[in-house]
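Course exercise 7: structure representation. Students receive a sequence record and must write out the corresponding structure in token form. The form below is the worked example handed out in class, using OGDHL protein (281 residues). Read each field label carefully; the graders check that inputs and outputs are placed in the correct fields and that the protein name is recorded exactly as given.

STUDENT ID: A-19
EXERCISE PROTEIN: OGDHL protein
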Amino acid sequence: VMSILLHGDAAFAGQGVVYETFHLSDLPSYTTNGTIHVVVNNQIGFTTDPRMARSSPYPTDVARVVNAPIFHVNADDPEAVMYVCSVAAEWRNTFNKDVVVDLVCYRRRGHNEMDEPMFTQPLMYKQIHKQVPVLKKYADKLIADGTVTLQEFEEEIAKYDRICEEAYTRSKDNKILHIKHWLDSPWPGFFNVDGEPKSMSCPPTGISEDLLTHIGNVASSVPVKDFKIHAGLSRILRARLEMTKNRVVDWALAEYMAFGSFLKEGIHVRLSGQDVERGTF
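STUDENT ANSWER:
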């Protein structure tokens, strides 16, 4: 599996989750063995110029914190884009590290149906309106080179339009929304065959006092004989054993017993996050 993340330029520079994800990218137990980040860089956020949105020259500079290679490519040149994407995929598969493809392009229309970009970026949008769309630009080049004929190009466009039109027509016939078709993994315990949620019922989760005492004793002991542990830890373990004897629990022991009861049933428990390794909480 190769993970691909698609970003906008303003989001790539401005969203903290991007920086955080890069710092997770090579951690044991968290790594995806390399993610390909594709930045659709239309050089404008919603209405914000880059100079008002970030302090670095490129939106992709945040990827430099992990020394990820960053390819800036002119999106008006499809063959260059294909080449760069092939190199990015090869990099990821060879080195299992993140890589960034910065598609330098433009947004022809507004941010959404209500947005008129000429209000805030009149000079930029005068230039954009003069641009020949990339499809026409590339088609003209291929026709001039003799790679395809005008007729072949028009047939390909008509074929694609037909696929879209047929899908649109079919969508009008769908009267029932099938939830289960949209689930990555249909959970049989939660949904019936029609994709509707089943009524939720919770089985009893109580366990016997003998089992709780056993878990408490194990949680208070050191697994290896004659193992010298920190005096402060010994004090914590003694206090835990004392609580178990007195049939008392605090939050930490209660949590320990909950995890222990899962483990006794053969259910794998994975802890992650700060301080879990030393059992602070």
